[in-house]
Amino acid sequence: MNLELVTVGTELLLGLTVDTNGAEIGRACAAAGWRLVRRTAVADDASAIRDAVGDAVERTGCVITTGGLGPTRDDATKHAVAELFGRRLVEDTAVLRDLEVRARRLGRWPMAASNRSQAAVPEGATVLPNARGTAPGLWLEDRGRVVILLPGVPREMRGLLHEAVLPRLMQRVGGGTAVVRSRSVRVTGVAESSLADRVGPLEPSLAPLTLAYLPSEAGVDLRLTAWGLSPDEAGRALAAGVTRLREAVGTPVYGEDDTDLAAVVLDLLRVRGATLAVAESCTGGVIGGRLTAVPGASDVFRGGEIAYANTIKTSRLGVSAGLLMEHGAVSEPVVRAMAAGAREAFGVDAAIAVTGIAGPTGGTPEKPVGTVWLAADWRTTARVAHVRLVGDRDEVRARAAQGALNLLRLLLLTAA
Q1: Domains of the chain, with CATH numbers?
Q2: Which of 89, 229, 376, 379 is disulfide-compatible with 408, CB 3.0–4.6 A?
Q3: What is the per-residue pLDDT across 90-141, written as a single tens digit (0 to 9) for each?
């Protein structure tokens, strides 16, 4: 089955909101063996919504919309689709009752008059009850064509999609005998162009899989996608493709799919019975935040020092004033001393340190914005890296944190 998605919301076009709903629906369709052939975003404008849905339903016969089902004046999806199909809006007593019960339960009684408008549904539409919010989903059929209206709030949309929409579509058309599936190999510390040089010669032999390069602050993900294969065939082809990519790229590969580098580092230390601390300057706690976001980090991670000022580097980490005076805070000797100081101060086996110039100010001709020094200290061995990172302040900080974690990963893979 082919279908299309129309996402509604001026905020999407202005770039104020990222369309996570589209990604969720795309993954769900691929898993079911259905092809999402087009995604269209439109503003909160009835005529734009009507035209987009009308064009989409003529092309494929099945359209999902998200957004524009709320109680305010700019929520126009329901009205536009009802007009498209020549349906009147009528008040659904069951929906109204649910809205009133919800309002009483939440202490919002009397219910706002605007909420009552959410009980109006197009004639002949099937209501998809929304247990997570006030806007119900709607399923409309007309001459074999289907339009499914879902709320834009991600939590509400996701619940209705998986609990109501996918089962109804599966019952109606069945799952595809062929699927669209993807797997990713996660790489860091290698530029996209260098990675392409390593992997490029493999691409023709990966068929029928396709390969995409997805750069980000974390590195580059190599995404393999199987199109039009059976589930078993797709699984075998993807597993073989992942193995070949890992062999071609080598140690810059730190995991697959949703692997988090912080979790990888914690696991490497955990199997060694080792502990970790961090000393951060320009990253200001980003590394500590990533580590503590991993469940179970407390059995490895002991803590960290945000040594932003030179006085803290000296008093808390034991960095000598002489080193700071001679080399400056952003230098190899200082980052080495920060890592060694953190390991000693926290009584741990391993430490990570970062110091740099995240910008947009503070750079010099000798040390421009994006200059960062990284250090990893593991028992009797230390490793240091000097990098020039691009991007705005947040991007430099994120890339520095990723680089520091990777430096320790590589040290642990090679050290005794």
Answers
A1: 2-173 (3.40.980.10), 179-256 (3.30.70.2860), 261-414 (3.90.950.20)
A2: 376
A3: 999 999 999 999 889 888 899 988 889 999 999 999 999 998 988 999 999 9
